[in-house]
DNA sequence: GAGCACTGC
């Protein structure tokens, strides 16, 4: 396979962007020096983005969520979980005159933003990028932090000739021809919801178009779970990877799209691997379902590891097509037939980062909390203000330990020195406490943020000049053989270390103190282990089966999971009857695949439907609670624990966590005056309960659509008592293998495998002895824990295991 | 006696 283009764009050096910034290039054809070929590609109705000197762009120094265009600051700080999704007043078209006035002010804003855009490192490469995707269907792009790739690439491409809706004909199953329109829209996938939404908002502003469903003329929209905002004129759509997979279940040929841009591939979540596999099949196949209209694919990553992706897509081109029709042609014939579009372009765009000096520990460090403490004060004593410190630790425990130590030492500090403000940051921290890290420090105060790897990708805190990196992180790993997840502290990868270091150089030159030796660094893995090698594959496999990938072994995995892991997942799907004996997907499996749940929880939902509408309704409430992390607030202090016990007394159910969750969800749902106050009174997380209600609403809706629930939404009988037996038996249909019995020594042993398992301290059954338990999660940290636990009877378990 | 980080029509 010829490799036609392999270009590395030399770009400006880090801080000298201004000086070496290339001559302003074209953004979409608005400049004088325009590319002749492009002219006719531009629809006239494209919002006008003028050139020329404009008002200086105000880029507010606000917390920025990562994966946002690195140099873009959203107007608002980190949104409270789902900011605008709650009162859903979507898809309301504005009156025409209002829309009109909006357009002119939107255009003004876009005009102002244009100056910022053209200074982005990627801007000078707009023409090359357009040309590459005209020649080839696949482009790989390495864009370092600050290059502007996520916001600019879709704008570079949206007016290309190949990006228009194309009328074509497809052959239907019955052999008849059907006229359809293919393409017209660009999809850009993101690993996280917030990134998808804020990127869409930013690109809409830059293009001078309203966002999503706010106007029928909107050209930019987004789609994430619980919150989709698009219009009939949407041309650029940001969506989460999961959302694209979901769309592909209904439209396997992606007929709405002319291009899919897969962003942040280096994060390698399991969903992105599936997306890439499906896209490779699409670009290297016959495209019959698209009426032969090509699909352009751009794969973007922040790290330079493009070799494996290049090999991955080349392999797709060199194989005989997955589709039967071209099989006889062989790969060579296909190559000459399709010519250029069978090549793959690679681009490398430098980022815009300030230099960060790396300081290694001269000696190996045994206690990184202690070492971090020393380094923090070393920085504080020696380095000038301003300059906040970001410390990467492994988890809540180490964060809190170091928090106490720093506060203790700071008290004995010379009063003449600037003060120190310590701020913890981890996902389980209540939202209000998380927000504190974004507030600027008081005068003469240095902020020290102690964070888990949440600050590595998900949250960006501004003002950081010093990074302290312990070199470790907790990693979840699914152990196929044991059927349990382990959560262990492991060394991070080089690319994670580089990512952490980069956090010090976003606003000024910085320093990164690595609490490990250079030798240790050099011994680290190059990249993070892809999630597909670390997780239970049953959901991924079910998704593939639901899309007609019969032979899992032949699916193009960017990283192929071990055979054992695939077999385990297939067995699991067989156990819950999602697959039949031949390995084909069953009706049950097809139904489960469409639910936004793990296959096991999906199976439980269907089993509950067999036990009647009331049981299904209750099980939906419980599943909704299980779908969000921890609905109960943490109670670390003895005092708080007692308070919680009292506050939650009326929610507690002796049957276990499932019935307790049901009581909580129903009490919350029936609270009509002040849910927030109710949650606070019961030491229940209001944020988590809002998510629970979102999931519940979605599941109820789907069950009504599939006629499992009656179409009128009235809860059957609010005052009725739930049936614990039916509910728990429904759960056993999915979790029969997640059971353990009490043995004479007072411990629990798993029914399958006879392993010791302890009830997690967060469970209401903690320290209780019952005949047998069923649990949702089996996690190894310091020991094996069962989480999400209920008491069950052994004869139920026997029945469930027998099928 | 304890909770890395994401995510789904």
From TrEMBL:
InterPro entries: DEAD-box_helicase_OB_fold, DNA/RNA_helicase_DEAH_CS, HA2_WH, Helicase-assoc_dom, Helicase_ATP-bd, Helicase_C-like, P-loop_NTPase. GO terms for molecular function: ATP binding; double-stranded RNA binding; hydrolase activity; RNA helicase activity. The keyword Ligase does not apply. Pfam families: HA2_C, Helicase_C, OB_NTP_bind, WHD_HA2. Residues 40-49 have a biased composition (Basic and acidic residues). GO terms for cellular component: nucleolus; ribonucleoprotein complex. Residues 30-39, 84-93 have a biased composition (Basic residues). SMART domains: DEXDc (SM00487), HA2 (SM00847), HELICc (SM00490). Residues 375-548 form the Helicase C-terminal domain. Its EC number is 3.6.4.13. It catalyses: ATP + H2O = ADP + phosphate + H(+). Keywords: ATP-binding, Helicase, Hydrolase, Nucleotide-binding. This is RNA helicase. The lineage of its organism: Eukaryota, Fungi, Dikarya, Ascomycota, Pezizomycotina. PANTHER family: ATP-DEPENDENT RNA HELICASE (PTHR18934), ATP-DEPENDENT RNA HELICASE DHX33 (PTHR18934:SF118). GO terms for biological process: positive regulation of transcription by RNA polymerase I. Residues 1-104, 321-341 are annotated as: Disordered. It is an enzyme of class 3 (hydrolase). Residues 130-322 form the Helicase ATP-binding domain. Residues 321-334 have a biased composition (Polar residues). PROSITE patterns: DEAH_ATP_HELICASE, HELICASE_ATP_BIND_1, HELICASE_CTER.
């Amino acid at each position: 396979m010829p490799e036609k283009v392999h270009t590395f764009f030399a770009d400006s050096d880090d801080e000298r962007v201004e000086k070496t910034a290339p001559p302003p290039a074209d953004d979409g054809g608005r400049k004088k020096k325009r590319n002749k070929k492009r002219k006719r590609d531009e629809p006239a109705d494209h919002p006008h983005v003028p050139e020329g000197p404009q008002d200086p762009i105000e880029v507010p120094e606000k917390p920025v969520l990562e994966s946002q265009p690195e140099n873009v600051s959203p107007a608002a700080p980190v949104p409270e979980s789902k900011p605008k999704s709650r009162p859903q007043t979507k898809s309301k078209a504005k009156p025409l005159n209002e829309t009109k006035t909006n357009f002119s002010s939107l255009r003004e804003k876009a005009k102002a933003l244009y100056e910022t855009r053209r200074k982005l490192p990627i801007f000078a490469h707009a023409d090359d990028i357009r040309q590459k995707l005209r020649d080839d269907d696949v482009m790989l792009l390495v864009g370092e932090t600050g290059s502007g790739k996520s916001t600019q690439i879709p704008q570079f491409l949206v007016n290309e000739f190949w990006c228009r809706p194309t009328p074509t004909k497809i052959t239907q199953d019955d052999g008849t021809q059907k006229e359809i329109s293919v393409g017209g829209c660009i999809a850009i996938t993101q690993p996280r919801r917030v990134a998808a939404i804020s990127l869409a908002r930013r690109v809409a502003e830059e293009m001078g178009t309203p966002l999503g469903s706010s106007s029928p003329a909107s050209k930019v929209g987004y789609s994430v779970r619980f919150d989709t905002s698009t219009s009939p004129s949407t041309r650029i759509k940001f969506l989460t990877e999961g959302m694209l997979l979901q769309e592909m279940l209904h439209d396997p040929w992606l007929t709405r799209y002319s291009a899919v841009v897969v962003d942040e591939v280096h994060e390698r979540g399991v969903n992105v691997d599936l997306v890439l596999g499906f896209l490779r099949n699409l670009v290297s196949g016959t495209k019959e379902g698209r009426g032969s209209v090509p699909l352009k694919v751009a794969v973007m990553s922040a790290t330079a590891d493009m070799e494996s992706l290049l090999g991955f897509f080349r392999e797709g081109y060199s194989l005989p097509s997955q589709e039967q029709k071209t099989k006889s042609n062989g790969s060579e014939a296909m190559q000459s037939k399709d010519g250029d579009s069978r090549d793959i372009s690679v681009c490398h765009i430098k980022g815009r980062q300030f230099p960060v000096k790396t300081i290694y520990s001269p000696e190996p460090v045994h206690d990184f909390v202690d070492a971090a403490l020393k380094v923090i004060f070393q920085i504080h004593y020696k380095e000038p203000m301003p300059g906040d410190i970001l410390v990467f630790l492994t988890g809540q425990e180490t964060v809190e330990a170091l928090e106490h130590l720093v506060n203790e030492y700071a008290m004995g500090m010379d009063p003449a020195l600037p003060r120190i403000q310590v701020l913890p940051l981890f996902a389980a921290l209540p939202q209000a406490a998380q927000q504190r890290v974004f507030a600027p420090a008081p005068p003469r105060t240095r902020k020290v943020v102690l964070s888990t790897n949440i600050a590595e990708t998900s949250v960006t805190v501004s003002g950081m000049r010093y990074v302290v990196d312990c070199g470790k992180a907790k990693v979840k790993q699914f152990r196929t053989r044991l059927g349990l997840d382990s959560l262990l502290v492991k060394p991070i990868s080089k690319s994670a270390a580089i990512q952490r270091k980069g956090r010090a150089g976003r606003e000024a030159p910085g320093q990164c103190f690595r609490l490990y030796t250079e030798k240790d660094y050099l011994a680290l893995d190059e990249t993070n282990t892809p999630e597909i090698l670390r997780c239970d594959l049953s959901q991924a496999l079910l998704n593939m089966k639901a899309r007609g990938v019969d032979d899992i072994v032949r699916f193009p995995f960017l990283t192929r999971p071990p055979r054992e892991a695939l077999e385990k997942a297939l067995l699991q799907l067989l156990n819950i009857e999602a697959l039949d004996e031949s390995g084909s997907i069953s009706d049950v499996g097809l139904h489960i695949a469409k639910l936004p749940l793990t296959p096991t929880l999906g199976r439980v939902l269907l089993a509950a439907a067999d036990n009647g509408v009331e049981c299904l309704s209750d099980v939906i409430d419980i599943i909704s609670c299980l779908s969000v992390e921890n609905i109960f607030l943490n109670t670390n202090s003895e005092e708080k624990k007692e308070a919680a016990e009292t506050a939650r007394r009326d929610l507690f159910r002796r049957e276990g966590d499932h019935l307790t969750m049901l009581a909580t969800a129903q009490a919350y749902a029936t609270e009509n005056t002040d849910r927030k106050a109710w949650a606070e009174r019961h030491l229940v997380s209001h944020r988590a309960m809002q998510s629970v209600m979102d999931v519940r609403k979605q599941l109820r809706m789907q069950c009504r659509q599939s006629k499992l629930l009656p179409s009128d939404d009235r809860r059957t009988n609010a005052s009725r008592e739930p049936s614990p037996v039916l509910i728990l038996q429904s759960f056993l249909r999915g979790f029969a293998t997640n059971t353990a019995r009490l043995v004479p020594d007072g411990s629990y042993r798993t029914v399958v495998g006879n392993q010791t398992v302890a009830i997690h301290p967060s469970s209401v059954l903690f320290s209780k002895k019952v005949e047998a338990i069923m649990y949702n999660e089996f996690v190894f940290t310091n020991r094996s824990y069962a989480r999400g636990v209920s008491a069950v009877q052994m004869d139920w378990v026997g029945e469930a295991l027998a099928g």
